[in-house]
From TrEMBL:
Superkingdom field: Archaea
Domain TFIIB-type: 12-43
CDD domains membership: CYCLIN_TFIIB_archaea_like_rpt2
The UniProt record lists the keyword Cell membrane: no
A single GO molecular function term of this UniProt record: TBP-class protein binding
Name this protein carries in UniProt: Transcription initiation factor IIB
Membership in a protein family: Belongs to the TFIIB family.
Function in brief: Stabilizes TBP binding to an archaeal box-A promoter. Also responsible for recruiting RNA polymerase II to the pre-initiation complex (DNA-TBP-TFIIB).
BP-aspect Gene Ontology terms: transcription preinitiation complex assembly
One Pfam family here: Zn_Ribbon_TF
InterPro entries: Cyclin-like_dom (IPR013763), Cyclin-like_sf (IPR036915), TFIIB (IPR000812), TFIIB_CS (IPR023486), TFIIB_cyclin (IPR013150), Znf_TFIIB (IPR013137)
Lineage: Archaea, Nitrososphaerota, Nitrososphaeria, Nitrosopumilales, Nitrosopumilaceae
One CC-aspect GO term: transcription preinitiation complex
Length: 304
């Protein structure tokens, strides 16, 4: 394998085929390799090997290769905007007439991005989705999936006559279910500021019309969330997972709420390992009632 030193030396020894001088240089801006003596161009469209530049005034990391495309923006991150700073390329302030002209241009440029009602609807929905992402601490993959589901609902005209907040929340819940991210209906409804009944109705609608294939919720994936809220140890979490896996082998988890099963397994594990947690503590951490824990504990105790 050729070393970096040998590669640099080979570039320095390259001679111009016209004048025979060792004056071949690479211009990254023009993407050309040419001779500085006679000006002959040896190669065009060379790859830019400079490191990426990060802009602090952007919502996402941008480089000299351009912003990345994403479904979480209504224009997929492909549109451009006029510089919001009233300064020229040298950093000098613009005149009053030029500032007025630029302000008018920015206004019409912003209006030109919104061609129809669907795009305005999509922009409002995706802005609400980004707020939910921050509130619920969701990964980018889940938000991308929720954006895709909402776009499909918009194509099928499911948004007409319905609440944007409820549909984007339903799309997010469907994305969480598909990626097996433990988020409950009540959590998403409370974060969006809507009623759970409204969220469930919207979820049933997109589930039926878009023919989504939602996997069955796994109760084991809910253990980490409940244990973190109840401040239980790692040893208790592992013991609760063993309880649920043993119950799963005997087909005792079918038709049961996954959050209730996880909370009950954690309660039994905390008793076995002598971690003092009441049913109310774990019920509050899981967002369920104490009656649910008592009923699920009866079934798990018979298995154990």
């Amino acid at each position: 394998m050729q070393s970096i030193f040998d590669f640099i030396m080979s570039l320095q020894e390259t001679k111009c085929p016209r004048c025979g001088k060792n004056t071949v240089i690479t211009d990254v801006d023009s993407q050309e390799v040419f001779c500085s003596k006679c000006g002959v161009v040896l190669d065009e469209k060379v790859n830019d090997s400079r490191s990426e530049r990060i802009f602090t005034n952007s919502t996402v990391n941008r480089s000299h290769t351009g912003d990345k495309t994403t479904l979480t923006r209504h224009d997929r991150g492909l549109s451009t905007m006029i510089n919001p700073f009233d300064k020229d390329s040298s950093g000098n302030p613009l005149s009053a007439s030029m500032k007025s002209s630029l302000k008018r241009l920015r206004k019409w440029d912003n209006r030109s991005h919104m061609k129809n009602n669907d795009e305005r609807n999509l922009q409002q929905a995706l802005s609400e989705l980004l707020k939910l992402k921050e509130k619920l601490s969701l990964p980018d993959a889940v938000v991308e999936k929720a954006s895709y589901i909402y776009r499909k609902a918009l194509e099928k005209k499911l948004v007409r006559g319905r609440s944007i907040a409820a549909l984007i929340a339903a799309a997010l819940y469907a994305a969480c279910r598909e990626s097996e991210t433990p988020r409950t209906l009540q959590e998403i409804a409370s974060s969006m500021g809507i009623k759970r009944k409204e969220l469930t109705a919207s979820y049933r609608l997109i589930f039926k019309e878009l023919e989504l294939k939602i996997p069955v919720a796994d109760s084991v994936s809910c253990i980490a969330k409940i244990a973190s809220n109840a401040e239980l140890s790692e040893k208790t979490k592992r013991h609760a997972m063993k309880i649920l896996k043993k119950a799963e082998k005997q087909n005792a988890l079918a038709g049961k709420h996954p959050m209730g099963l996880a909370a009950s397994a954690l309660y039994l594990a905390s008793i076995d390992l002598e971690e003092n947690r009441t049913q109310k503590d774990i019920a509050d951490a899981a967002g369920i009632t104490e009656v649910t824990i008592r009923n699920r504990c009866k079934g798990l105790r018979t298995i154990l």
